[in-house]
Design a protein that fits this description.
about 260 residues; alpha/beta; Rossmann fold; Helicase, Ruva Protein, domain 3; 7-stranded mixed beta sheet; about 30% helix
Length: about 260
């Protein structure tokens, strides 16, 4: 049985076993070594085979019915759920915390990480491979041009680490871009100290007009007479700000 990569699903099947093993090993942090693993988009099981060797509970979510049938035939005991990860209630999958990993479909990789934030208290460790530019953006430090919405929102709750780059030539079919492997480890933050919904709105609004200063992009959110109008931070552009500075913006807009 052969699984044909489907462009509509963003499928690019990894063919290099050494790289697959390296990606699988990214979940092996000692403090999380007993947690179950959830793999997104196993495809033909190239990464899955190495995750199965870790003697930890493993579940896979796959949207492609052809891949699901292939995996069931290849690994009869593997727990594969045919479903759309983006619409799934992840709290039903495991009773407690779990690790998330995968060779993420390129066309939904950003959406996967936005969903991760909804389950940040259930997922202390997230690793995997996605297109390099998105991986670099997630890990981008303040002051870098690649910094964006995902950078700030994820770094508020996770320590984000870019691990290594993967060539486009080890996939079938080869993507048009290189890939990057990252690891996100939950930090010790339990409360941002501001309204998390407003925080997200401030970050998204700022980067929605990233070429403008914060004075121009956030003007509609800042009440008249608010002391933030006098703050020099409004002369900055969003990519220069740290998570703590975005929290400061949010708190001041709130009037705290």
């Amino acid at each position: 049985m052969r699984v044909k990569p489907k462009k509509a699903l963003g499928q690019h099947f990894l063919t290099d076993m050494q790289i697959a093993r390296r990606i699988a090993d990214t979940v092996d942090l000692p403090e999380y070594s007993s947690l179950p693993i959830l793999e997104i988009g196993p495809g033909t099981g190239v990464l899955t085979q190495f995750l199965m060797q870790k003697d930890r509970p493993l579940k896979c979510i796959e949207l492609d019915s052809e891949s699901v049938a292939y995996l069931h035939a290849l690994y009869p005991d593997l727990d594969v759920l045919e479903a759309d990860f983006l619409t799934l209630d992840l709290s039903d999958l495991f009773p407690g915390q779990f690790c998330l990993t995968g060779n993420y479909p390129y066309n939904i990789s950003s959406q996967i990480f936005f969903k991760l934030l909804e389950y940040k208290d259930r997922i202390p460790l997230c690793t995997g491979m996605l297109q390099r530019e998105v991986a670099e953006r997630i890990c981008a430090a303040p002051g870098t041009k690649t910094r964006g919405i995902l950078s700030v929102l994820l770094q508020a709750w996770y320590d984000c680490e870019y691990l290594f780059t993967v060539s486009e030539h080890v996939f079938n079919p080869p993507p048009k871009v290189k890939s990057g492997v990252l690891r996100l480890t939950r930090n010790n933050v339990t409360d941002l100290g501001c309204d998390p919904i407003l925080f997200k709105r401030v970050v998204k609004t700022s980067f929605g007009m990233r070429r403008k200063t914060l004075r121009n992009s956030l003007g509609a959110l800042i009440p008249p007479g608010n002391p933030l109008w006098q703050d020099p931070i409004l002369a900055e552009r969003p990519e220069r700000l740290s998570v703590e500075q975005f929290i400061h913006l949010t708190r001041t807009i709130e009037g705290k």
